[in-house]
Amino acid sequence: MIEAVGLTKRYGAKTAVYNLSFQVRPGTVTGFLGPNGSGKSTTMRMILGLDRPTSGHVTIGGHPFRQLPNAPRQVGALLDAKAVHGGRTARNHLLSLAQLAGIPARRVDEVLGVVGLQDVARKRSNGFSLGMGQRLGIAAALLGDPQVLLFDEPVNGLDPEGILWVRNLMKALAAEGRTVFVSSHLMSEMALTAEHLIVIGRGQLLADMSVKDFISANSADFARVRTPQTDPAQRDKLMGVLAEAGGQVLSEPDGALRVTGLPLPRISDLAHEADVRVWELSPHQASLEEAYMRLTQGAVDYRSTTDQRAGLMQQPDPMGYAPPQQVAVPDVPQQGWYAPPPPGQNPYAAGQQHPAPPAQQPAPPAGPPAPVQAPAAPPAPAAAPADLSKSEDAR
Ligand SMILES: Nc1ncnc2c1ncn2[C@@H]1O[C@H](COP(=O)(O)OP(=O)(O)OP(=O)(O)O)[C@@H](O)[C@H]1O
C-alpha cells in the first residue's frame, strides 16, 4: 500500500502539491487524475524518493522509498520513458538495470517478451518510436516483479492494440493483489481500467473514491426527448407535463429536451397520456470524462483560445484545389455539453461559491431543484481554489 500524509512540495514560490493525504490499496487499479500541472508527476516523484517533500511524508508498505530494502524488487515505475541511455540497446538497458538490482538476466528476456519488444531487443533505443519507448519503460517497471507499480501516462504514444494491452496488463497486475497507481489524461481509458480514483487540482485533493461514486457524485444520467420539429406546441406541452411530474427539463441546442429526475418509462407514459408524439427517447449515461470535466473545470491552469490566425487566412485559389463545400453544422457549445450535475448539486451555477472539495466521500444527493425550462445555460466559471502559488517558506 502507498500512503501519503499531508504531502506538500514547494519549488521556490510555486506550490506544486499541497497537503495531500491518500492511500493506494493493493488489488485494484487506482487512477491518478488531474489537469496539466496539477502535481501528479511531482507526487509520483515524492513517492519514489526522487523529490523530497517540503512537509508531510509518503510511505510504501510502511517505509519511505529510500528505506525499502532492495527497492527495485518491491516497486516498479514508469515515470519518463525517454529517460534511457539512447546509445544502448533495449536489452542492454534492461540488463544494466537488472544487474544493479540483482535480477537474473533471463528475466530481461521475459519482460522484453511481455512488452512485445523481443524482435528489436538488440536495437538502440534512440531509434525507437514513442510507443516503443513506452513499452521499454513498462518492461523496466516489471523487471523486479514488484508488488507496487506506478505508471505516469503509460499509454502515451501507444497504438490501439498497445492501449488495450496496457489496460489488460494493469488489471491483471491488480488482480494478482499488487498495488497499481496510474496517471492518465485519457478519461475513456481510465474508465475502463481503474476501479478507484484519486483526483487532484492545483496540487490539492479533489476526490478519492470509486469510479462509480465519482461519476454519480459529479454528473447525472439524463434522458433525451425529441418531439416533431414541425409542431412546437407539442414540445411545449410535453415540457409542462414533465416539469409538473417533477422532472428538470432543459433545452438542448438541437431542440431536444434534456430531462433529469424521471425514469424513461415514466417519460414515455407521460407523453402518451398527454397525447404527444415522441420521435426520440434515449438514455444518456454520464461518462467519467463528463464528471471529471465538471469537477476540475475550476482548477484548470492552461486554457486554449480560438486561433484568430492574425488575418493570415488565405483565400482559396479558384484555379487550384478547393475543399469540398460542407453544410455548416452549429457546434455544441463546449461548456455545458456534458451531463448535468446530480439534482441539487451544481457547484458551478452562477452566484454559488466553489464548494469544499468533495474528498473522501461522495456527497449525498440533495433534493431536486426547481425545474428549469430555459435553454441549457453554460455553467459559470467556478471560483478558483485558493491561490497556492504564494509560498510560505520559499526554498
Ligand atoms: N523541478 C521543478 N521546479 C519548479 N517547478 C516545478 C518542478 N517540477 C514541477 N514543477 C511545477 O509544479 C507544478 C506541477 O507539475 P507536475 O509536473 O507535477 O504536474 P502534472 O500534474 O504531472 O502535469 P502534466 O499532466 O502536465 O504532466 C507545475 O506548475 C510545474 O511547473
TrEMBL record:
Domain of life (superkingdom): Bacteria
Region entry Disordered, spans: 311-395
Sample GO molecular function, one term: ATP hydrolysis activity
Transmembrane segments: none
Pro residues bias locations: 355-382
UniProt domain ABC transporter: residue ranges: 2-227
Biased composition (Low complexity): 322-335
Keywords per UniProt: ATP-binding, Nucleotide-binding, Transport
Family under the similarity heading: Belongs to the ABC transporter superfamily.
Name by which UniProt lists this protein: ABC transporter ATP-binding protein
Source organism: Streptomyces ficellus
Taxon lineage: Bacteria, Bacillati, Actinomycetota, Actinomycetes, Kitasatosporales
